[in-house]
Design a protein that fits this description.
The chain is of the alpha+beta class. Helices cover 27% and strands 25% of the residues. It is built from three helices and seven strands; from the N terminus they run E-E-E-E-E-H-E-E-H-H. The chain has a three-stranded antiparallel β-sheet with strand order 3-4-5, with no helix packed on it. The protein has a two-stranded antiparallel sheet with strand order 1-2. Helix 1 packs across helix 3.
């Protein structure tokens, strides 16, 4: 293990030769209105649709939570590596943006794919590092961010029908 310290807490990172697999399981169910509730470990999650789409607009929509997951993972990965490499980065913030063409999702033919054709993560680093070093750091972070990898590369999705009862 490679250890580094975060606020007096030692965090272990395995050597490059070991696979580090983290099983993820999120359970979901419909709630009232158009809300979908979920459970990830002991954490409650929820999404809703815009009121113009029949939702109550009480939570972020699924597309916004996808953008949030991407940005959150990028920022967390950046902080992890800044600590590991002892980089002088005081704070990290990001904004994720993209536009989705929902034409096909509405059951109509459209010229574009359904989903984000691209997503942009704009990152601000409060640091004394030269701009070129900052750019190199962000490129490295993008290559080590699991959500970046999941979105940037084709990830097969299997849909399975569960029997009632």
């Amino acid at each position: 293990m490679i250890d580094f310290t975060l606020k007096d807490e030692v965090i272990g990172m395995p050597p490059n030769k070991e696979a580090v697999c983290l099983p993820i399981n999120v359970s979901l169910t419909e709630g009232p209105g158009r809300v979908v509730r979920g459970k990830a470990r002991d954490h409650d999650l929820a999404v809703d649709l815009f009121s113009s789409w029949g939702g109550g607009d009480t939570h972020a929509c699924p597309l916004e939570t996808l953008a949030f997951a991407l940005g959150a993972c990028f920022v967390a990965t950046a902080r992890t590596w800044a600590i590991r490499d002892q980089l002088p980065i005081d704070s990290i913030s990001a904004n994720v943006e993209g536009t989705v063409d929902l034409t096909r999702g509405m059951g109509m033919e459209g010229p574009n794919r359904l989903g984000f054709p691209s997503l942009k993560i704009a990152v601000k680093l409060a640091t004394t590092l030269p701009e070129e070093k900052q750019r190199e750091f962000l490129k490295m972070v993008a290559s080590r961010c699991p959500v970046c990898d999941t979105i940037d590369n084709a990830t097969p999705i299997q849909v399975e029908l569960l029997r009632q009862g």
